[in-house]
C-alpha cells in the first residue's frame, strides 16, 4: 500500500457515512472552485494582459509582471506547505485571493511605488494558492475513486478533474478580455465590425510583430502610438475587476467544503516534514530524476505564457492595432485554451499521451516559425487566429504537465506542485525581465529552443518508463486507462 493513502475498506466505509450523494458533492466542490478561479482570474488576466502596453513608461508594466513571478519563486520555496498546514487548502485559497486585490487596486494610481509592492503581494499569495488548488483536486480525486469503488482509476480522475477545473479557469481569459475590450474600446466598435482599425502613421509591417525592437533599441520607433485609452475607462475597468475578486473570495469561503471532510482518504505519515522546512522538501524533490527532467518543459510553460501576455500583446497587437484591441485578440486565446482543456482528456484517450505531446510540439513549433516570418497588418482577425493557435497548444501543455506532476509523485503532491509553480515562475521571470532588452524575433527563437529541450526531457521520462515496464509488466504509467485496479 502506498504511504499516506488509507486502505480502501476504511476510506469507503467513512465515505458511505457521509451519504450516497457524496460523489455529486465532490463534483459540486470542483465546480464551485473552478467558477471562483474563473471569476478571480477574469480580473487578474484582464489586468495583466494590459500591463506591458498600458504601463510601458520605464517598462513599469513588464517589471511589475517580473516582480509578481519573482516573488512567486520565493513563495513556492517557503510558503505553500506552511500556509496549507496552518489554514487548510480551502482557507489558503481564500486568503491568497485576498492577496491579489492590492494589485488590482494599484491600477487606480499606477506607479513604481504602488505596482511593485502589490505585484510582490500577488506572488506571495500565488505559491500557496496554486499548491492548495492542486492538492485539493488530487485528494478529492482519490475520494471520488474510492466512492465509486475504484471503477475509475485515480490517475485518470486526476487528469479529468484537472481538465474540468481548467475549463472554468481558462474561461477567465475569455471573460477578462471581453470585459477589457468592451470597456476600453467604447466608441471604436464600428471600426472593429468593419474588419479594420483606424490607420496608423506607423509602418506596421516594418515595426511590429517579430520586427518589434525592445524599448532600449527603439530610437527609430519613437513615433509608435499605442493608442492609449482614456484614464476614466481604465478606472472603470479596474473597479469591475476588483469586484470580481471580492466575489471569488466569498464563493470559496461559502461554497467549497474543507478537506477535513475527506481526512479518511489519506493518512498523515508520521515523518511528514514541518511547514518551516518547505524549502527542504521542495529542493529534496529535485533529487528525483523525473522531477529534474520535467524542469525544462515546466519552465517553458512559464516562458511561453509570459511571451503571449507581455510580448505578443505589445509587439503584435498594441503596435499593430492599439491597446484597446488587446482584449479582443486575447479572447481567442481564452476560447482556444478552454477548448483544449475540455478536449485534452478525450484526445489523450484515443491518441495516447506521447503522440499528443509530439503533435503539440510540431504544431507549436510551426506556429512560432510562422510568427517569425509573418508580415503584420491592421486586420484584427489575423491576430486572433495566431493567438488562438497559441492557446490550443498552451492548453495541452498545461493539462498534460500539470497532471504528470500529480501522477508521478502520489502522496508527495505538495512538493511536486510547489516545484511546478517554482520553475514555471522562473521561466516567466526570465521572459518578463528580457522584455525590455531583446527584440521579439530573438524571444521567439528562445521560446522555440526551450520547448525543444523540454520535449526531449519529457521524452526521456517516457523512455525510462517504457524500459521499466518491459522489466515489470505490472508497472503502468498510462494516465488514460479507465480500467479498475487489479487489487
From TrEMBL:
Domain of life where this protein originates: Eukaryota
Coiled-coil annotated spans: none
Subcellular localization(s) per the UniProt record: Membrane
Pfam families referenced in this protein's UniProt entry, alphabetically: UNC-93
Keywords: Membrane, Transmembrane, Transmembrane helix
Gene Ontology MF, one: potassium channel regulator activity
Keyword Transmembrane helix: yes
Major localisation: membrane
Matches recorded under InterPro entries: Ion_channel_UNC-93, MFS_trans_sf, UNC-93_regulatory
Membrane topology: Multi-pass membrane protein
Cellular component per GO, a single term: plasma membrane
Annotated GO biological process: regulation of muscle contraction; regulation of potassium ion transport
Family listed: Belongs to the unc-93 family.
Name the record gives this protein: UNC93-like protein
Species whose genome carries this gene: Anopheles maculatus
Amino acid at each position: 500500500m502506498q504511504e499516506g493513502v488509507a486502505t480502501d475498506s476504511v476510506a469507503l466505509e467513512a465515505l458511505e457515512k457521509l451519504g450516497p450523494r457524496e460523489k455529486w458533492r465532490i463534483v459540486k466542490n470542483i465546480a464551485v472552485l473552478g467558477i471562483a478561479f474563473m471569476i478571480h482570474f477574469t480580473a487578474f488576466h484582464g489586468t495583466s494582459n494590459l500591463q506591458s502596453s498600458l504601463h510601458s513608461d520605464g517598462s513599469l508594466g513588464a517589471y511589475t509582471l517580473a516582480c509578481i513571478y519573482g516573488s512567486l519563486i520565493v513563495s513556492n520555496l517557503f510558503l505553500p506547505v506552511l500556509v496549507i498546514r496552518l489554514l487548510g487548502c480551502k482557507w489558503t485559497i481564500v486568503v491568497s485571493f485576498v492577496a491579489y486585490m492590492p494589485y488590482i487596486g494599484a491600477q487606480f494610481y499606477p506607479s513604481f511605488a504602488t505596482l511593485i509592492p502589490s505585484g510582490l503581494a500577488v506572488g506571495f499569495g500565488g505559491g500557496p494558492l496554486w499548491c492548495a488548488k492542486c492538492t485539493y483536486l488530487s485528494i478529492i480525486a482519490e475520494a471520488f475513486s474510492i466512492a465509486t469503488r475504484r471503477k475509475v482509476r485515480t490517475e485518470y480522475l486526476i487528469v479529468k478533474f484537472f481538465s474540468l477545473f481548467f475549463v472554468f479557469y481558462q474561461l477567465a481569459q475569455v471573460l477578462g478580455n471581453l470585459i477589457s475590450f468592451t470597456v476600453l474600446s467604447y466608441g471604436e466598435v464600428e471600426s472593429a465590425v468593419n474588419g479594420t482599425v483606424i490607420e496608423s502613421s506607423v509602418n506596421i509591417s516594418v515595426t511590429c510583430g517579430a520586427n518589434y525592437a525592445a524599448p532600449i533599441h527603439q530610437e527609430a520607433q519613437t513615433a509608435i502610438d499605442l493608442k492609449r485609452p482614456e484614464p476614466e475607462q481604465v478606472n472603470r475597468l479596474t473597479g469591475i475587476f476588483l469586484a470580481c475578486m471580492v466575489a471569488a473570495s466569498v464563493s470559496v469561503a461559502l461554497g467549497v467544503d474543507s478537506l477535513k471532510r475527506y481526512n479518511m482518504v489519506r493518512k498523515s505519515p508520521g515523518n511528514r516534514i514541518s511547514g518551516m522546512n518547505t524549502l527542504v522538501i521542495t529542493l529534496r524533490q529535485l533529487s528525483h530524476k523525473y522531477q529534474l527532467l520535467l524542469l525544462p518543459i515546466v519552465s517553458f510553460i512559464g516562458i511561453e505564457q509570459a511571451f503571449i501576455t507581455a510580448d505578443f500583446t505589445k509587439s503584435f497587437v498594441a503596435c499593430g492595432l492599439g491597446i484597446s484591441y488587446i482584449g479582443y485578440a486575447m479572447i481567442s486565446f481564452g476560447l482556444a485554451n478552454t477548448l483544449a482543456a475540455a478536449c485534452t482528456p478525450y484526445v489523450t484517450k484515443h491518441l495516447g499521451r506521447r503522440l499528443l505531446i509530439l503533435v503539440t510540439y510540431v504544431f507549436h513549433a510551426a506556429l512560432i516559425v510562422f510568427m517569425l516570418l509573418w508580415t503584420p497588418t491592421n486586420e484584427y482577425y489575423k491576430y486572433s487566429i495566431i493567438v488562438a493557435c497559441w492557446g490550443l497548444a498552451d492548453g495541452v501543455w498545461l493539462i498534460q504537465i500539470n497532471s504528470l506532476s500529480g501522477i508521478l509523485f502520489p502522496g508527495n503532491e505538495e512538493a511536486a506542485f510547489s516545484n511546478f509553480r517554482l520553475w514555471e515562475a522562473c521561466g516567466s521571470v526570465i521572459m518578463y525581465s528580457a522584455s525590455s532588452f531583446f527584440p521579439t524575433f530573438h524571444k521567439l527563437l528562445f521560446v522555440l529552443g526551450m520547448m525543444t529541450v523540454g520535449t526531449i526531457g519529457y521524452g526521456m521520462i517516457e523512455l525510462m518508463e517504457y524500459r521499466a515496464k518491459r522489466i515489470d509488466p505490472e508497472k503502468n504509467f498510462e494516465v488514460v486507462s479507465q480500467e479498475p485496479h487489479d487489487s
